[in-house]
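User:
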Amino acid sequence: MNKIPENITHELIFSYFKKETTNEESLMIEVWLNTSDENKNYFNDLKSIWIETGKLIPTPIEVNVDAAWDKLSLRIENDNIISNLPDKKQINPFTKTLLKIAAVIIPAIAIISFYLLSNKELKQIEIVTTNNNIQKQLSDGSIIKINAHTKLTYPEKFDGKLREVNIDGEGFFDITHDKEMPFIIHYKDVNVRVVGTSFNVKTSNDKVEVYVKTGKVLLYIVSSNLNDTTLIELVAGDKGILDRIAKKAYKEEVANENDIFWYTKTLIFNKTELSEVVDILKNTYNVNIVVKNSELNSLRLSTTFNDQKIESILDIISTSLNIKITKNNSIYEIDGEDN
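Assistant: Predicted structure:
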């Protein structure tokens, strides 16, 4: 059997069984678990012991007090837990009865307390945007700019070891630093974990994209079907993409913040080829632009646009690159030099 790492204790594994671990701790256990078959066997043995020694759901059951006492006293004798406890045979009947009751009642109280605490639900707030974006400040001071056509769900107040929200759409997060309470964004089976940083999250059915403006972000997915974890670490200037279908993740280093134009209202081009400029404008403004002369694609543009309409941008590009841009119905056509 592989030696269990020092940072993965039996107590941590038992907490994992009870779903009390943080996402980071769970991820750490799952990565260790998938290292070898020996680790899996050891993990399963611990799980069998945990299930056998006590279930956490307080369903009504018949309790055999004598059996519970015998089991507890056997543990005391074998583990020498209480060194000054008198021999079991010398305990008077009244004391023995109290200890029998304690052997059942104390675990029962612990089980019920856990059940009540774990099922204490905080009020959830849901925001759904339509055609406009809005800004929301959370109870910890974190600020989220929510893009149009997005749903965000978050607790009225963060309580526990994690700050967790759910998003379906796009949002820019500026997270208040709290090392003791990491911030987790969920989209279906994909997770984004941070402590304190600013970044953009964009979700769709087949992928999740994260652009990091400041700090560090962990983008990951835990696949129960494949029994595997896919994760990448992103720093400022990185764009991470997690393919939910293929269960693969990759990252790109980007030189500007064009991916978050909806938030900054700024487009930056630095010796950018026209073909790339056109792709960005098409995606950003949801317009149809066609370069009819492919020889123009290699032309390079260096300029910055601040909250300008697409017509104004195309006029500036036409003048800067000396090219002809016309509108044919709803299509902008780029074709040849402008005489």
